[in-house]
Structure formats: structure tokens, C-alpha cells
Amino acid sequence: MNKENFNQSIDNIDVPLEKLIAREKAAISQARNRRKVGRTTKHSILIACGLCITLLGSGFVSSGMAAALSNIPFIGPIYAEFSDIASDKIERDKLATVIEKQDSHNGLTMTVKEAAYDGGRLIVTVEYSGEKELSLKEGNTGFNYVTINGKPFKSAIGSTGQDSINSKTIIEHHQFTLANYDEYGDKIEIAVHGEDLFGHKGKWKVDFPLEKVKGDMHEFYPGVKTEKGNGVYTLTADKVTFTPLSTRIDVTVDYPTELDENDTWKWFEFSVVDNHGRVYDRLKLQTGMAGKYGHHMVLTLPPMDTIPESLTLKPADINNEGFNEEIKELELVVPLDKKK
């Protein structure tokens, strides 16, 4: 199956993908804000991507992805393979910064290949190569993480995808939507840390400076809101940000404080439709939480070359059978005609 047919087949998956994402959400926890019943979750595009890798088997990598490693200064096909939300624009506009910095010992080399940052999203691509075969089996992959300016950072959405290029090479894709847009300014220091990786004992670290990608950035503050049940739930679209790596929508969700206390607040599923009827959902939409208890939600869509006149947010709740049911009362039209 070629790449185009594969992508089309993924888009055509209805019930299985929705059910798997719903089930996986309960298992993907946000460590910095872990709650008593695991309700704090990361619902990201790469969860869906990881599910696809699981369904299709280990080592599902196209020949284009394998060849990409030798095509520095740009390895665009990798972003598409991991279904990064900005993959098309990264490849077309050459947005990634070539890093090519490594740490090598104990028979394993960790190389940061490329990275991209636009104030709201951070993407890092890493290659691991070993003198002997590397394994992605559970328990062998070890532990790794990314820091900004020497410290852990808050993200609304974050995922890591890994897959084998060959028996001795693994590619890894980190992607984050930061909790607060432009918190770190135009220049940052990134470090990728690894410990006991793929059966190799030890610690690895690669650090490097990274500048914000060049490109147009636009901010809108619509401030529109809608409510359900006489104000039991209220959604407010606070800000819409267009950057080279994403379209970001910051949403405030208000509800009675007792729902915080007894942990019964809802995690809404969303789809977004622009004024031309284009739908953003599933692999074209990430949903994450920037604060506690779902009060500050972040929706991340692919970057857009042309800013639409409006975006319509369509919240939904997951029923007992794992299907999304739209909540018409909370549907919210967000006008984009007051740029600040």
C-alpha cells in the first residue's frame, strides 16, 4: 500500500479508531498534574499514530522514512510517518532546524537530527543507533525526556513516537504543545535526556540552542462563549493563534466547583469546522489541558496558509459505547475578524 492510500485508509477508519482513542485516553496520564482517578490525560495526535503502529505491527516504516535519514539537511518524510500535525508545512517550507549533535557511549549513539519551535509547539527528532541490535520491546526502551532552558516544562499536549528503521536504528519523534504560548521567547536551550535506552545501561544527553522558526504569526482574541444547562457548563474561546507549526485555540471551560471536588467534570471531545466546511478532527486535531481539572483546554489544528473567517467548535461527550455525541448547546462559532 502506498503512502497516499495508507493515509486515506486511516482517515476512513470510523468506529475502531474512536473506540481505541477513547480507551487509550484513560491510560495516557499527564505526570505533572496526575489526578486520583487518572482523569488528567493527554489526547494527542500521536496517540492515534501510536495505535496505528500497534495495529500494523512493529517496524512499519516506509522506505521513504528509512531513506530520509541519509537526506540531511532535511528529513521531511519522518514527520509524515509519525502523522505530525504540521508535517506537510514542515516539509514544504523547510521549517526544521538541522541539529546533528550526538552523545555516544556503551555501544549506543543518540543523535538529535532536527528540531522545530514556533513559540507554541516544540518538535524534536532523534535517531538511536547501536553496535548491536536495538529492541523496542516493553521494558527495554528505558526512559527519556526533554527540557527547555535546563528545566522541565509544562505542556498541554505531549507525545513520543518510536519505530525501527532497521535492526540497529530507531527513530524517535517528540512533539509538544506548550501550556502557555510564547512563554520562552524567540531563543531557547533544548536538551534531550535518556537513561538505560533499548537495553543499554547508562545516561545520554544532547543539548543545543534553538531559535523560533521564521514565518507569519497572527493572534485573535474573540472572547465569544456559549453555555449549557443555564450555565452549568460554559465554553469561552479566549484566543486563536496561527503559527507556522499549528493553529491553536485556547478555550476556558467553566462549571460548578463541586465537579472539581468530586472529580466529575467532563473531558469534552472536539471537532472544528471552518467557514468553508473543512472539518478538523481525529488525526487533524489534538486536544490537551493546560491547567488543572479541564478549565483551560487547548485545541491544536494543522497550520493554515490562509486564515478563515471563522471556526466553529463542536464539543462532544463520549457515551457508554465509546461513540462521540455532539453537544449542540455548546457549539461555538468563533469569528476571526479582530486581530490584535
UniProtKB/TrEMBL annotation:
The chain crosses the membrane at residues 44-69. The keyword NAD does not apply. This is DUF4179 domain-containing protein. InterPro entries: DUF4179 (IPR025436), DUF5643 (IPR040680). It comes from Neobacillus rhizosphaerae. Signal peptide: none annotated. Keywords: Membrane, Transmembrane, Transmembrane helix. Residues 41-127 form the DUF4179 domain. Residues 221-326 form the DUF5643 domain. The keyword Transmembrane helix applies. It comes from the Bacteria.
